[in-house]
Amino acid sequence: MKKNFFLFALVAGLAWACEPTPDNMKLLDQLVVQTHYDTEVNFTDYATYSISTDTIGFISNANPNDTILTEHDTPGYPRPVLNQVATNLNKVGYTRVEKNANPDLGINVYVVNDYNLFQQVVYPSYYYPSYYGYYGSYYNYPYVNTYAQNTGALVVEIVDLKNIGADKKVRVLWTAYMGDVYSTINLVQQSVDAIDQAFHQSPYIGR
Amino acid sequence: MKKIAIIIALACGCGLVQAQENYFFVNWDVNTPMTNTNWIGSTSTRGIRGGYRAVFGSQRQFSAGLDMSWATFSEYKPTETFQQQAGAITTDYFNYIYQLSFAASGQYYFHKSTNERFFSYVGMGLGANQNKYTVFYNIYKDQHSAWGFLARPEAGILLRISTRKRIGLMAAVHYDYSTNKSNDYNYSSFSAVGVSVGIMSMQW
């Protein structure tokens, strides 16, 4: 009896102490914002930009047929995101122009969706064939756990349309990755805040 | 390091199981880091210690045994921007250390032989510990695991509930020093002060 009590206390204690993880609400209430830029570029050399009004790109390995997210299909997301990018660009001195007005900068906004399936073979820790006999061992076969993880990042790119090379390739001057957009508390607000932060931590952008 | 810890544990265990008088214990363990407190400085209340000690000497002055403990240290870090070579990253995050330790330990008891209920002791444990240094940010996680040598001086008391019962209470204060470090997180040797309280079962 006493032995069982100690064993129970030990197991309960280990289970309680065993690799707890942080509170999800606190982990997911803001996106991670990572920015990267071309250090050889002088952003003051550019004056105008062009950006879509209600469509953002969508790259997914779960559904290769989905290539764009429109305001019509996903109401309430593309437009606030695009507006916030434009607001920040205007704030640092760039002027928005139509796509056919020869803009210096092109703005790409898209979501990358990475859908992964994981499989894990589970081998039971305890195996007592002599106690349970032949039939008991049936319950001890390894089994397979399958689970899915759906992750995604909102990506904003500034590309150089002023200096397109002879091979028609454009250079990406600045990229912001903001994630994860599939595990959020408030997707739109967190995306808007993340865009503000991306520009805030990139003071070299502007005229 | 892991192999050394297992060999020490087995060697000590084989010699001790034959001892007639012994006790084993399960304790709740509270620890406060003393070094690298900018990484984690918060007190951890998520800890557990268990162990077995064989008692020697005509007046039960000595014991030797094995301790195992598990603790989780954690601390929330508010939003911060880290500058990189050609950019920056901004996030809030949690630093965690998952710690597992094994120690072979010896104790000296200050009690008088006429008092069979109260025992005070000082001791020293030597062994190894594993720290899993973990950073959680949003859905992402980075982790680096490392083993180190562990030294653990300790002082404590044992209180037998009654002379007719084999169950008792235990309390101890210990200082853990470990060579465990992580270059990834610029974390040098680990040390912490801990207080543990719990129950024990005495076999005499």
From TrEMBL, chain A:
InterPro entries: DUF4136. Residues 33-204 form the DUF4136 domain. Gene3D superfamilies: 3.30.160.670. Residues 1-17 form the signal peptide. Pfam families: DUF4136 (PF13590). It comes from the Bacteria. Keywords: Signal. This is DUF4136 domain-containing protein. It comes from Chryseolinea serpens.
Automatic annotation (TrEMBL), chain B:
It comes from the Bacteria. Keywords: Signal. Residues 1-19 form the signal peptide. This is Outer membrane protein beta-barrel domain-containing protein. It comes from Chryseolinea serpens.
